[in-house]
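Protocol step 4 of 5: obtain the predicted structure for the target chain.
Materials: sequence only (see below). No template structures provided, no constraints applied. The aim of this step is simply to have a reference model before the mutagenesis design in step 5. Sequence pasted as it appears in the construct record:
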Amino acid sequence: MKIAFLCKRQYMSKDVILDKYARLYEIPNQLAHLGHQVECFCLSYQSHNEGTWDESDEHKQLIWHSKSYIGLKKVGILSYPFLLLQQLKQYQPDIIITASDIPHIVWGAWCSKKLSVPFVADLYDNFEGFGQARIPGMKQLLRKAVCQAQLVTTTSQPLADLVKLDYAAQGQVISMPSTVDLQTFGKKNKQAAQAKFGLQHHKQYIGTAGGLYKDKGVEVIYNAWEQIKNEMPNVHLVLAGPFQPDCPPPEDDRVHYLGALPHHDIAMLFQALDVGIISILDTPFGRYCFPQKAYEMLACDLAVVVANVGEMNYLFSTTPQVLFKAGDQQDLADKLKHQITHPVRAEVVIQDWRTIIKGIEPVIASLKVNT
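Step 4 output (structure tokens):
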């Protein structure tokens, strides 16, 4: 089967093509490994180099195309859907899969209608929470496009429910959470990981990594720390990631700020900690997202404390004692103290990308049969 995959070039600050990064790379990559001919069409909003990258070998047929509109030529992005349609006419796919943001979902629906082929929409987030959604008419275009899809995959069950009930999607809707690289994120030597960051094995460390921003819920961590540090003198707080000047990490001898870490080093950080913290605000974004930190920490066999929002309520349903009320610093402090002294680990099975895509592939393949 010939599959066309449409997405943006940069995803979570990574180059999808060159970094071979996460969901936007693995969906087409794993479909290619399952025997399908896959060509990917990427649009760069950041002016990456244009070109074609052919990853085909004896195991797969996978080709990437990338288009950029640089400098004064950025206005040319308005013509991109027409260029994309011409490329797809030449390729003649059996199915179009689109992902990454509102424009790509809308373009995918338009191209599939023009070419009379089935259309799959992949929503790795609630795109109505993106900045693009503030442009008049964009939310309506997104919903209309999603409702044209024969299959919608979402990154969380709450988002799947939103698409079914609020969007009134006509196609099949399946929750397909993103997973992590289990070769990178796994249980490894804790003392070696601590030594890398200058941490001492006889101390206890709590912490998190990622965007340390107010809208990501970091303030409640800082507030809970003020209580923890006074009651548990052997506990230290470890933080990694960018922050905003108006909300800097606490300045304290027992606070270790590591800056923004490479992906591999984040895994080592989670291997070094005693308790990981996942703070999400009870907002439209928080209710429909799937924080990758959850799988990353769990894969490293790390005890966690997690805000009870959206998908996290499903994921940690068997260990409710690790869930804290979003934004509640006292509840977070209480749950942290319990996890530090009496750690409970959630028994969550984390599948690799190969297994996940192998499970969804028959549904995708059936769309061609049914047209």
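Step 4 remarks: The chain has a mean pLDDT of 94. The two ends are 13 Å apart (CA to CA).
Proceed to step 5.
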